[in-house]
Amino acid sequence: MKMKRLLLVLLLIQSITTFAQTYNSSNSLVRRALVFYEQDGQGYFHKSENVSMDNVSGIINTYAYDKKAQELYLETNNANCVVTLNDEYAKIFKKSKSVPQLKGKDLENAIKKVSDNLEIRINKLNEKRRIFIQDSIAKAREDSIRQAREDSIKNEKKNKELSSYRQAHNWRLLPIDGRLQCEICEKGEYKDSIFAFALQNDTVFYMTIEENILGVSLHKIHVAKVPEDIKKHPKYIKHIEAYGDSLRKDTDYSLDFVKYINNQNLVEYVSELKKVAPYGFFNDWGWNNEYSSISFNFSYTNLNKKTIKYIDVYWRVTNDVNDVRKTGHFKGTGPLEELESASWDWDYSSYYVAGDASQMNITKVILTYTDGTQKVLSKDMLRFK
């Protein structure tokens, strides 16, 4: 029985001295760091002395034991510690030969040696950290200077490119090479570029000339979301880089506001058109004498507030040397109200001309209105689209 008990104790001692890497309240009464080095946010270690500890772990060296005080001396990577063992563990270490049992001057020297070595090791770590931080700062400074230089070169190159682009392009002429769908008129069409005057988030406001009659133009504003494929187009990107600020300046439009402007433009367009052609105009007209009998067609728009009942178109046919070959007129029947257009066709007529007849001129127009009044439009009063 004695041999078995001695073997058990020896195994327990070996287990403790070999594998006991943590001391806490389960195996010790007091745990204290004689010297303790704590790492700050920058990675430097700072020294503290006589620091109470909840536990001691990460032990790299168990270098002394004071059996009278039941104190075990331990070294970790950042501390020189002393642990007061409880009675059970003290009995084990009292019989252990693996840990030097020291006291007095010998113990003091052992403690000092471990503290001195620890200080030397920590100082080396702090110096290594200092050099690393110093090198990192220097590198960061160099990288920053290099990056700033590269950015400056890139910006200068970019500014030159944009300056060159601005000299060659109108800021309102926005290249899109894509399809836009107007939110107002619901008209979708493919365009190479648009005459844009505002960009509000991803919505573009642009203008088109819807009509250009007798030198009078009708301008219409459209509102459309810019599709993703257009926003990724290199030409579009370049233009926005060059003129984005101008396009986004003072953009605070609504659909109702745009509709109001379009309506005002239409009113102004009609008003200007009436000044140029107060009694209306020919949209188109034509004739033919392929089978000797004259065929004739015309389309007319009424710009007068009176409704046209009849429209008599007088004409003259001549040859290449201006000899008159035939005169006559065609009568179109309405009604044709203000701002309306209508067409009339005569596939054949009772008018026959000689084979050398080559051109026709409209000489005058007589408009008969539903109120019985008439207006005679002489040649210089006629208007053609």
Concise description?
The chain is built from six helices and 16 strands.
Per-chain topology:
Layout: H1 2-19, E1 28-39, E2 45-52, E3 59-66, E4 71-76, E5 79-85, H2 87-95, H3 104-168, E6 173-181, E7 188-200, E8 203-213, E9 216-225, H4 228-231, H5 234-248, H6 255-276, E10 281-291, E11 293-301, E12 308-318, E13 324-336, E14 341-346, E15 359-369, E16 374-377
Antiparallel strand pairs: 1-2, 1-5, 3-4, 4-5, 6-7, 7-8, 8-9, 10-11, 11-14, 12-13, 12-15, 15-16
Helix pairs in contact: 3-5
Structural Rg: 52 Å
Span between N and C termini? Answer: 129 Å
What does the overall shape look like? rod-shaped
Order of helices and strands: HEEEEEHHEEEEHHHEEEEEEE
Biggest β-sheet description:
5 strands, antiparallel
- What is the arithmetic mean of pLDDT? 91
Number of domains: 3
Widest sheet, order of strands = 2-1-5-4-3
Strand content: 35-45%
Structural class: alpha+beta
Can you describe what's shown?
It is a single chain. By secondary structure, the protein is of the alpha+beta class. It has 3 domains: 29-122, no CATH class; 173-275, no CATH class; 281-381, Immunoglobulin-like (Sandwich), CATH 2.60.40. 35% of the residues lie in helices and 39% in strands. The protein contains 6 helices and 16 strands. It has helices at residues 2-19, 87-95, 104-168, 228-231, 234-248, 255-276, and strands at residues 28-39, 45-52, 59-66, 71-76, 79-85, 173-181, 188-200, 203-213, 216-225, 281-291, 293-301, 308-318, 324-336, 341-346, 359-369, 374-377. A 5-stranded antiparallel sheet has the order 2-1-5-4-3. Helix 3 (104-168) crosses helix 5 (234-248). The longest helix has 65 residues, at 104-168.
